[in-house]
């Protein structure tokens, strides 16, 4: 009997030791699981932050590209409008009533004259810029001792306006040149708007 009690005692001790080992293993497993859960939560948090940052960067990139595209489309539309405006301006200049056209040309000549002895070259189809107009401009330039303009026999295709020629020096005051200069200035303003 005593042998059975010893065996029972050994078995009870072994069972208690096994239960202790089992409890320790479960505690260790629970601690490891908690540690893994915490690491997993950290990874999820970092992944979410990285994903959010990537989304924000992509969104910012897409918005910038969209803004640039809209600005380009707006510039294209403005250029189309400019084309129409300048075509209409050219037509209006060429079709000014006689007196207004002659006054405009006289004012342009007065502003463009350098020495006063230039030749005035006109468009091949021009009939409103004549010797009488040149004489009128010369009278206005007489006070400055510059009233020696002459109407050239040479004609060019200008589409309106004139060229002042003195030797090899030419001052182009054709409508085409005037409108081109005005357009360049407007386009520079448009470009500033696009890139500001």
Low-confidence stretches: none
What letter string, H or E per element, gives the SSE order?
HHEHEEEH
Strands ordered across the widest β-sheet: 2-1-3-4
For the biggest sheet, the summary is:
4 strands, mixed
- Overall average pLDDT: 85
Number of domains: 2
Q: Give the overall shape, derived from the CA principal axes.
A: rod-shaped
| Total helical elements | 4
Structural class call reads alpha+beta
Q: Separation of termini?
A: 103 Å
- Evaluate the radius of gyration: 46 Å
Assign a percent range to the helix content: over 70%
| Beta-strand percentage range | 5-15%
Number of DSSP E strands: 4
Label this structure with key terms.
single chain, 196 residues, alpha+beta, hypothetical protein PF0899 fold, four-stranded mixed β-sheet, 71% helix
Kindly describe this structure.
By secondary structure, this protein is α+β, with helices and mostly antiparallel strands. It folds into two domains: 1-95; 98-188, ATP synthase, E subunit, C-terminal (hypothetical protein PF0899 fold). It has four helices and four strands, in the order H-H-E-H-E-E-E-H. It has helices at residues 2-94, 98-112, 131-141, 175-195, and strands at 119-123, 150-156, 161-166, 169-174. Strand 1 (119-123), helix 3 and strand 2 form a beta-alpha-beta unit. Helix 2 crosses helix 3 (131-141).
